[in-house]
Amino acid sequence: MLGKIVYYNYVKRFICGCFLDESTIFAKQNTIIYYVSIFTNNNKTMNAIANRQLLILTLICFCSLNIFGACPFSKYTDVVTACTGDNDFGITYSAGISKEEVSFFPLRPNKRTGKGYTHGIGCLDETHAPAWFAIKIDEPGNLLLSISHTGGTDVDFACWGPFSGSSKQAMLENVCSNSDTYFVDYLVPSISSEIVNSCIESSDVEIEEAERRSKSDPDFGCFYGYYDAFPIGHMVDCSFSKRVSESCFIENAKTGDWYIILVTNFSCTPGNICFNKISGTATTDCSVIVDAGSNSPVCEGEDINLYVNNLPAYASCKWKGPNGFVSDEPTPKISNAKDAYAGTYYAQITTHDGIKSDEIPVNVRIISNTPVDTTIRIVEGDKMKFKNVELSKAGDYEVPFKSGLCTKIFNVKVVVEPLLPAYIEQNGPICEGDSLFLSIGDAPTSGVTGYIWSGPNGFHSTAECPVVPKMNLNKAGEYSLKIKKDGLTYPVAPVNVTVIPKIKEKVIQRIPFGESFEFAGEMICDRGVYTATFESYYGCDSVVELSLMPDMPTLEPNDFITPNGDGENDFWSIKNIEYYPDAMIRIYDRFGKNVYEATQYSSENAWNGKDKHGRDLPSTDYWYLIDVESSDRVYYGHVTLLR
């Protein structure tokens, strides 16, 4: 829920937390506390901190924003209507005497005693013996009023407003119906809406900067201010002095505005609180101080309790209201509340000397508990929760639902709709790279409002017959469908789509020299790379690449050479050398000298016992090295030269 805070920096005295040691701040349960820490250094840097748990900070000055989901007073009767000066009815306003504090407010260090923690708000470091009051403005303008105790003891106060409402109860309902109540204190003048925005999530509150007023404390050189108040309007004034009379200033009050004042009684001395006007053109409305109200809203069948909270001694009271209701009791009870009893009741008191008050309106709301009939349709196999009750089977159910203090009965009829006969059609198995076509078999012909397709690899579609292009292995898997029809969503049985991958196979085949090999219907015998495309059972193409490597014959060099011109072994012969035209032949003498080398070895360049320069070599053993590059083989050995 978006709340709204109006920036207001009203400085009254030095109160801001200036500590040199560690200060522990506790967050109440179910309370979110935001802290803005301002550290005193040359640059006066500010650090924004948000936390939901125990937070220990070393601070110079800090502020806190406390967000609450309820009112600080437990019931509306805790707040008493008041006005300034004496009134014709002799109504007085009792001071609080309980030593208990307003525990709704957050804990903070007790600066009065220097020990422990107290529940404070605004400038109030302590809030024990609290009393809550509400005043309504009659004539507009500024108003300066005094607040004091009839026993002459110390009182302190905090004032919030303005609020609106036709009566005190209506005003308090307006205040407390807003579940987000903001209290902010401990700010310094350098803080702006921009700084506050840095410690408050923009989704939580809306920051609006208003007029800033400040005053420096001459003793400490620090500033004090509070950043807003309770709960929608800003904090108007606050004082925590030791004076027996406090002054509360309300600026530019308008007719009909309400202000809430918390007065604490430090000594817990019994007595009355006095409100007196000091100056200003504004006045308070004393016609509303007859503090009438009720326990509204009331559950049907329970009791309506009306009350006058501050009936003077010897005064009488008359009530009237809907359905002919009248009563002379100050706190009448109406049993077995019905819808007919809802409406506006009026209370009027008469003092012992005949002075009558205005009729005070009190609105009473009755929450009906008449059973509500409703029908819920679900799809077979589905479950749903209705008011936290899980429903999955057809039938009639009685479901109680508690709203606030009242319980309402829902008569729920559950209708289970059967699954549709529809099924998913697809053209799978799919060849890799082809498109998948999805469609619906036995599809419904009416009432359809949409389709929800989902599948692997993030597939999603709302088309009736979607197409998935360029299928691959990542897109294989389960595809599902939901059909929206007549306000329900029907699941359809999923299908599994298979993708046949394209295969590019490489085959290396060695065959004996001189033989052939059949590949793709052809006989081949030559060395080389051959490709062929084959179609699978599902019509998918695959490419096979064949590398044919016939086994070549082995070289067999002759062991000797006799170059004497007789036509026998005049040249060194190497059997099968003609199959290796790339072979490099080298011959070395016993000293390692290369005496002959040749490629493309044949009878034309065969070794005849001469060196590279054509000179006859002596008879002896020579070494040969034959490097066959095409087969990655090397032959070596010796050959004998005889003359």
Give the biggest beta sheet: 5 strands, mixed
Write down the Rg: 50 Å
The proportion of strand residues reads over 45%
Poorly predicted tracts of residues: 1-70, 179-233
Structural class: mainly beta
Taken from the alpha-carbon principal axes, the silhouette is elongated
Helix content: under 10%
- The average pLDDT value, as a whole number, equals 75
Query: What is the end-to-end distance?
Result: 116 Å
In which order are the strands of the major sheet placed?
7-10-17-12-15
Task: Give the count of structural domains.
Answer: 6
- Please report the number of helical segments: 2
Number of strands: 53
Give an account of the 3D structure:
With 643 residues, the protein is mostly beta strands. The protein is 3% helix and 46% strand. The protein contains 2 helices and 53 strands. Strand 50 (584-588) and strand 51 form a beta hairpin. Residues 1-70 and 179-233 have low confidence and may be disordered.
Please describe the topology of this protein.
Elements lengths: L2 E7 L12 E4 L6 E7 L7 E6 L3 E4 L2 E8 L10 E4 L24 E3 L7 E3 L10 E7 L4 E9 L5 E9 L4 H10 L3 E5 L7 H7 L5 E8 L21 E6 L5 E9 L4 E8 L7 E7 L12 E3 L3 E2 L4 E5 L7 E6 L3 E3 L5 E2 L8 E8 L9 E5 L1 E2 L4 E8 L4 E3 L2 E3 L3 E9 L2 E12 L5 E4 L3 E2 L4 E6 L6 E8 L3 E3 L5 E2 L8 E9 L2 E10 L1 E2 L3 E8 L5 E3 L2 E3 L3 E8 L5 E10 L5 E2 L2 E2 L12 E2 L8 E5 L5 E5 L21 E9 L4 E9 L2
Parallel strand pairs: 1-14, 7-10, 20-27, 28-32, 34-41, 42-46, 48-53
Antiparallel strand pairs: 2-5, 3-4, 3-6, 6-13, 8-9, 10-17, 11-16, 11-18, 12-15, 12-17, 19-21, 21-24, 22-23, 22-25, 25-26, 29-30, 31-32, 33-35, 35-38, 36-37, 36-39, 39-40, 43-44, 45-46, 47-49, 50-51, 50-52, 52-53
